[in-house]
Amino acid sequence: MTKLWGGRFNEPTNALVHRFNASIGFDVRLYDEDITGSVAWAAALHDARLLSAAERDTLIDGLEQVRAEFAAGRFVILPDDEDIHSAVERRLTEIVGPVGGKLHTGRSRNDQVATDFRLWLMRACAHLDGQLADLQRALIVNAEGALNLPMPGYTHLQHAQPVTWGHWALAHFWPLARDRRRLDGARRAAAVSPLGAGALAGSAFPIDRERLAARLGFTAITPNSLDAVSDRDFAAEFLFATALLGVHLSRLAEQLILFSSAEFGFVRLADAYTTGSSIMPQKRNPDTLELTRGKSGRLIGHLTGFLATLKGLPSSYDKDLQEDKEPVFDAFDTLDMALPVMSGLIATLEIRPERLAAQLEAGLLATELADYLVRQGLPFREAHHLVGRAVRLSEEQSVALTDLTAGDLQAISPHFGADAADVLTVAAALAARALPGGTAPAALADQLAAAREAVDAATANYLSQ
Ligand code: ARG
Question: What range(s) does the Fumarate lyase N-terminal domain occupy (predicted)?
């Protein structure tokens, strides 16, 4: 057994303990960040006069060779490789000889793993941001395609007031804008360099921490070495951002599962995004949407599980922290699939105007009649009550609200003028809601422009950093 820390031990590690302890099975995906961090560390050791220029170059060339082996799938993980840090150092030393042993001067795997994980997470956030922007663009195109197409709006899943398809589609756009902001927050939380914290107390060598941080693309350095080796707030923030993003995707999925059912029939999912049944030939199952809805559960689980891992830890590094990586990697992998699937599904979604129109029944216009009475000077509560009577009358007569005569209405209240029926159209109901954020055509045009701008502004924000 040739462990990094084997010097003071007489007996080899129990085989099961070795497996229990090892993280190489999942932290191998940090190889690129680990090597990038080590290349910068070698340069910092030279700056601090701890390595000659030739030693630094030997180490950096060796590290790049290890990186190339990983990239080409040629790196062989050995049974004794405990984690990515020990595997890289073991291979480096095989390549460059004993000078490889100088790389770990003044650092610890504790500040090293925090560095690697932060660098990885910064990249992960940027990647998900691009996928989120794609989904936002798909929703914008979908909204534009039927911007002012009327549809029933719902509260409590009951007919409420008319809205438009574009308004509905954009309602699922804005949560994603907030998700992007939250992911950007996690990325900023990660962009702080722990290098130089050592194992817990700080490094005893004159490393220029600021310069090293800047070299790696960090924006600041950690202020306390004990905190630095155990701060995983950035991971928890990432898991919250991904959990809430999962919730948003789940709600969109749930809505489309309902809308694509025979009962609603508002949309048809493209063949490419549905699956069949092995027994019922007529079935077109929205499996992709159901999986998206289902996977939000594991995203929430990763957040709560990880917070539970953190809550009992005393200050500084504890091995529990090794549990940080799997939930974060899985949250990333889950969304890395779910986001492009959802984008493709939205881009190929067929809207069925005739089915939307069939649901535009007169009950959706009851509020218009109440608003009409308010414009005649009645208190809203009284107006609401009078319209309630009109609704009841229409039910008693088994006719639509819009089929009541002017005489029927005037019998309920003399405030109903001959023009009362004019407000009882879907177009009038939509046009009336012209405040910013409302469903009227002019307000929607503004909202659409704001959405387009929001996608590009957030993207530009990422590209500039
Ligand atoms: N594999 C460890 C982790 O993921 C690396 C740090 C280990 N440090 C230590 N002193 N055992 O957290």
Answer: 7-301
Asked whether residue 153 is assigned to any structural domain, the reply reads: no
CATH of the domain at 55: 1.10.275.10
Domain range for 403: 362-432
User: pLDDT tens for residues 158-180?
Assistant: 999 999 999 999 999 999 999 99
Ligand 1 centroid to residue 84 C-alpha, Å: 10
Nearest to 237, CA basis, from 284, 187, 278, 199 = 187
Query: Residues 6 or more apart from 268 whose CB is under 8 A from it?
Result: 260, 349, 350, 352
Cα 92 to averaged position of ligand 1 atoms, centre (Å): 19
pTM: 0.95
| Cβ-count burial 97-123 (b if 16+ within 10 Å, e if not) | eebbebbbbbbbbbbbbbbbbbbbbbe
Please check whether residue 181 lies inside any domain of the structure. yes
Instruction: Report how many domains make up the chain.
Output: 3
Domain identity same for 317 and 415: no
Q: Counting atoms of ligand 1 from 1, which one is nearest the CA of 321?
A: 12
Q: Would you state the pLDDT for residue 465?
A: 62
Q: What is the pLDDT of residues 239-293, one digit of tens each?
A: 999 999 999 999 999 999 999 999 999 999 999 999 887 888 888 899 999 999 9
